[in-house]
Structures are given as structure tokens and as C-alpha cells.
Amino acid sequence: AQGTAAITVRADTPGPVYDKRIFTQFAEHLGTGIYGGLWVGNDRAIPSTRGFRNDVLAALRELRVPVVRWPGGCFADEYHWREGIGPRRDRPVKINTHWGGVEEPNTVGTHEFMDLVELLGAEAYVAGNVGNGTPQEMAEWIEYMTSPAGSLAEERARNGHPEPWAVPYFGVGNELWGCGGNMRPEYAADLTRRYATFIKAPQGTRIIKIAAGANNDDANWTEVLIREASRQIDALSLHYYTVPGGWPPRASATQFGEDKWALTLAAANRMDELITQHTDVMDKYDPEKRIWLAVDEWGTWYAGDPGTNPGFLRQQNTLRDALVAAIHLNIFAKHADRVKMTAIAQMVNVLQAMILTDGPKMVLTPTYHVFHMYRDYMDGTVLPVEIQSPYYNAGPSTLPTVSASAVRGKDGVVHVGLTNADPDQPSTVTIRMQGVTPGAVSGMVLTADEMTALNTFDAPEAVQPATFNGATVQGDTLTVTLPAKSVVMLDLR
Ligand code: AHR
Q1: Which residue range or ranges hold the Alpha-L-arabinofuranosidase C-terminal domain (predicted)?
Q2: Are residues 461 and 333 in the same domain?
């Protein structure tokens, strides 16, 4: 990748808000994502608050997680909420048929999830069961959670929570084209209309109804859902995973060369074209952009780590994942007028996780650090970027060497997020600031000597953000030297 990337930041034509809900996280009953990763109950060896481990809570609070999506995923379409309320010892032990065939003790149910949300200072995004549940079961769950009065509210009070909870977001099933019931879009649209009808918020409150949207490039799914069900919904989801080498996931999370590095980053870049494709369809039926596109599952999906249960989707996380995360967060800025929520999969111990645990041990992943570097984007104003980047090639994969986004934070600071995909060469970038005079520039960088660098329980700080000194300002132009294989966040005051 030779040459200089040229970027113009259009501070003179500010764009939409970079919604904080783009940093939503997904926590499913899957592997050790909930049990062990978040919930340790009364295990005295691991300090906890209301059953949730303190070390993980503290790390997540640093990220200012805005929303948590729960209980699935595929798990949601076979989850029966009544099994997760009442005295824990009386709850039925089920089999988690989708994820590893292990016992699901129902220890974490509605009350525990709401505790988690409260402990994080986040909001609840609950995914309902359309797959094998009834509209009545779904309606009663919502009433149980949100109603100030009535016998379900009394039952909630008997179970320890007299006050109704807020449920600002509710998913009308999940992946109805697959694990949610293998439906055709026409049937899914009809069911979405029917189930969504019975999602009722108590007076003075609102529940945003998120329909189970398309997989990857299935624009027909989006078209049928929005054409047939737009009056009943507020958002349509999109799921797209970065799977180097295609489905089923078989690439190693940690052992890879430059070919797989480039293949992975090129696959991550595909999110841009997919969002454009689905947005174009949505624009036809909803030109005012009332209905959000909620990319509520994204991230890398590799073969599980050696020696782990393949149904647990446990994978390590390297500098490559950090680049994937930052590329996505940059792409979402470009589409922030339609994309108001996204959720990386998943929060702890599953797929592209923020945090890995093993018993009492915990480690923050490179992906965690990217979320930390980008957190001041939350609810800031997107400053559109025009970018001309050289291309980086390896094997059959080609992608722009540099990706970028810019947001004026709520603090007034202009933040510019950048990635350099080239694993060997630094990239020089000139950034012309149009409509704002850059004063002092400071920054952070995330990189490492090896593209396979990762954090382990024994070496938890191998991949850490460091102060970045590679930017200089002259007039309205910044000249930045991005180290090879890096994520950089600049702050312009
Ligand atoms: O995140 C893992 C799984 O991926 C989810 O349960 C499902 O929705 C998707 O297929």
C-alpha cells in the first residue's frame, strides 16, 4: 500500500447523531457468556454484586454500555420467561438445545437480567419468543415487566420488584429465517404484524419494536418485512458476521498469516455495502427514515478455541479483531441516519467478546480497548468524511488501507477514528478539517508487533492503548502517520 490517504472532515456540514445505542452489547445464554462470565451467584471465590461478578461489571461500566440485548439470539426463540422467575431453587433445569446441549438452570431470569442492566446503568433490550412461544406468552411477559398494576405486577412484587421496569426495546423474535423458525419472509412478516400488535407499553411509556431482519445480503427479506409490517414496527434488524473463509466458521482465531488477516478485514468492510443495500430498500418504503436499521449482531466468528465445546463459541481475540471493530464503528458513522443501534456479538466469552474469563481470572480483549477508545462518539454529531485511500492487497483480498470517521463529541471535542490495515507499512494520512480549525491534537493508538498479538490471563496487557504522538497540525490540515496494523483515535480541541 503505497501513497498517502487524503481525508476531508466536513465539520461545515454536520451529519446525524452517532447514536450511543450503536455501542449496544449482546449477552446470550450461550456457553459461558452468562454463567461464569457475568453471573457467579454465591461463589465466594469471585466477588460479586447481586450475583454478577464485580471485575466484569467494573470493566463494562468503563465502556458506558448503553443497552444490553438478552436472552438471545437463537436462545430467545425457545425461552419461556416463566421458567426464569420465582425462587431460584424451584426453577426448572432445561437443556440449552441450541448451544452445546448443556443444562440451563434458569438461574438468570428476568429479575437477574434487570439487575445487570441496573448495575451497568444501561437500558434493557429484551428479545421475545416468536419461534415456539405464543403472542399471549409474549404479551404477559411485557405486562409482567412493565405494568404498574394488575395481577402480573403483583406477582412481580412478590418476586421482589414492586416497581415496574422500563423495557425500551423489544425484539419480535430473532433470525426468523433460521433458528427462529426457518420461516419464509411472507410468513415472518405476518407473524411480526401479529406478535407486534400485542407488544403494548403502559401509558406514558414507549417500547421500540425491533423486527427480526435479514441475514447478510438478503435484501428480499428486508423488502418483504418493511413492505408488509412497517406499520407495526420501529426497527428492522440486520445480522452480518465477519467469517473469514465462509460458513461454517473454520478459521482459527489466533493462528493466521497475512492472507487470513486481509480476508478478515475485507469481510469486515463488507458491512458498508450491506448497510447500503438494505438502506436502499428501506428508503423506498420509508423515505423519512422512521424505521431504524438495527445491526444487532455483528463481529468476527471463527472456529472455537482448541479444546473448548464447539457449541460455546469461545474464541480468543487479537489485534485483528480490534481492526474489525474499529472498521465497523467507522462504517456505522457513515450510515448513522438509518443505523441507530448495533450490537456486537457478544459481551463476555462468546464470539468477538469484550472480556474473557476463566474462573476468577478476567482479561480485556483488544476489542474492548477499541470500544473504550471510541466511547466519546456516543451521542455526538457525525462529521462526514470524504476519503481517498490507497488499496491494500494480500492474496485475493483487496481493501482500502485506511478507514476513518469523525464525530464532534458532546464534549465539543472533535474525535477522528482511523485504521491502517497494512500489517507491515505505516500509512501517511492528510486530514483537511473543513469548517473547524484544529487546535491541539492528542490521541491514542492500539497496535502491537504481531498481527496475532492478544491478551491472555498471563499477559493481560500485551495489546494496550498507548499515547499517540504521530499527528502534526499546520493550518487546517493534520498530517498523521498511522503505524502498521493500528487503530488510532485523535482528539482535536
Ligand atoms: O451470536 C450467536 C448466534 O448467532 C445468535 O444466537 C444468533 O442470532 C446468530 O445466528
Answers
A1: 296-486
A2: no
pTM for this entry = 0.98
pLDDT in tens, 46-73: 999 999 999 999 999 999 999 999 999 9
User: 137 with 277, same domain?
Assistant: yes
The residue whose C-alpha atom lies closest to atom 1 belonging to ligand 1 is 345
CATH at 404: 2.60.40.1180
**ipTM higher than the 0.90 cut:** yes
Residues 39-60 as b or e (16 or more Cβ within 10 Å = b): bbbeeeebebeebbbeebbebb
Ligand 1 atom showing the smallest separation from residue 297 Cα: 1
**Which own/partner contact pairs does 306-309 have at CB distance under 8 Å and 24+ positions apart?**
309/31, 309/100, 309/102
Residues 365 and 396 in one domain: no
> Ligand 1: which residues within 6 Å by Cβ?
28, 72-74, 174-175, 297, 345-346, 351
CA dist 352 and 262 (Å) reads 17
Please tell me whether residues 124 and 140 are part of one structural domain: yes
Give the three cell numbers for residue 334. 457513515
Please identify, among 343, 361, 378, the residue that sits at the C-terminal boundary of a domain: 378
Number of structural domains, the chain?
2
Q: Within 10 A of 439 (CB to CB), how many other CB atoms are there?
A: 9
Active site residues per annotation: 175, 297
Q: Are 347 and 68 in contact (CB under 8 A)?
A: yes
